[in-house]
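Incident review: delayed structure delivery

Summary: a single-chain prediction request sat in the queue longer than the usual turnaround. Root cause was a stuck worker, restarted by the on-call engineer. No data loss occurred. The affected request and its eventual output are reproduced below so the record is complete for anyone auditing the incident later.

Affected input:
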Amino acid sequence: MAKRRANNEGTITKRKDGRWQVRITVGYDPITGKPIRKYFYAKKQKEAEAILTEMKQKLRTGTYVEPSKIRFGEWILKWLDVYVKPNVKPETYTDYYDCVTKHINPGLGHYELQDLNNIIIQEYYNQKRVSGRLDGTGGVSARRIHMMHQLINGSLKKAVKLHMIPINPAEDIELPPLKYKEFETLSADEVKRYLDAAREDRLYAAFLLELTTGLRRSELLGIPRDCFDPVKGEIRIVQTLKRKKLAGEEKSRLIISEPKTQKSKRTIPLLPEVVAEIKRFQAIQRQERLFYGPKYKDSGLLFTSQIGTPLEPRGFNRRHERILKKAGLKHVRVHDLRHTFATLLLQNGESPSNVSEILGHARTSTTLDIYGHSTSEGKVRAVSRMGKLINIS
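Output delivered after worker restart:
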C-alpha cells in the first residue's frame, strides 16, 4: 500500500517489483524554472521513510547538493547571462563580461563548482594583487579586485540558493581596502585662468557649466536640449553619453544610457552667467544649422558638433588639453574639473550634503570619502574659530 506525503514534501510509493520508491523535489532548474526531482529506492518501507526524512532535513538546512561536474567558469558565465544581463545596462554587462573572461575564468574557471573553496579564492585574489595585470606589469587595483569579488560572490550566492553547492566559499574573504586615487585640482585663481583661456573656444559654455556644477563628462555630453530650462535657470540630468565597445561587437560606438544611480538623476541650479552662455551657444547652433542645411544632423543634445552630432568624449578631452596649455596650467583631467568644483566648495565651508546632491553621489559618505582629505584648510579655519569662541589667550 502506497504511503503518500503532502505536495512538495516528497512521496513514497511501492513499485511492482516490491521495492519502495522515494520521490522528492530538490530544487528548480536555473534556466527553465522547472522542478528537479530525485528518486531513491529501498527494499523496505522504513528504509524509504528514513531516506525521505534525511532528504527533507538536508533541504531544510540547505545542506543538500545535487551532484554535478559543472565547472565554475561555465556557471559564472551562465549566471551572468541569465541573472545579471537583463538587469544592467549593456555597457555595465560588457564590463562584467570582460572581467569574467579576461581575469576570473583564466584563474578559477577550470575548477569544478563543488571543489571551489575559500582558500582557493583568497589565494587567487592575493595573486591578482601582485601580478594580475593583463600586460604583465604588476598587480591589479583594489577596485578591480572588488569587482571580481562582486561577480564571484554573486554567482556563488545564487548557486547556494539553487542547491548547487551547500555554502558560499566566497564568504569571509579578506579584500584590500578601497582607496580613492589622489587627484589634481585647480585653485580658484587657476580656474579663472582656465576660463579666460577657454573663452574663445566654441564650447566655452560647456566648460563653464562643468566648473560650476561638477558634472561627470558623460553627463555633460549627454544633456538633452529640452533638459535645459533658461527660465528656471536649471538643468536636469537624465542620461549619459559614452563611447563603449559592447560584448560581441568589434568596434566601439557612442551609447546614450541612464545615469549610474537614481541619485544621479537630478536637477541642478545654474548661475545666471552660465544660463547666458548656454543661450549664446544655442544661438551659434542655430546659425550652424542654417549654414550646413541638409548636412546638419540634429541629435537633440545641448552640446553638439558643428553639424549637430554628439560630441566625441576624446575630442572634448583634446579641447580641454589645449585650454590648459593656453592658460599655462598643469595637466589635469576633465574629470579633475569635477574634483575641483567639489574641493573648492568644501574648502570654503559648503555643506557636504549639498555638494553630494549636486554631484549625484548616492550617499554623502561617498563625498566625504573622496574629498575629506581635501578640506584641511577648512579644518584649520574650524579650529581657529573654536579658539576665538572660547577666547584662549
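Verification: Confidence is low (pLDDT under 50) at residues 1-7.
Action items: add queue-age alerting; document worker restart procedure.
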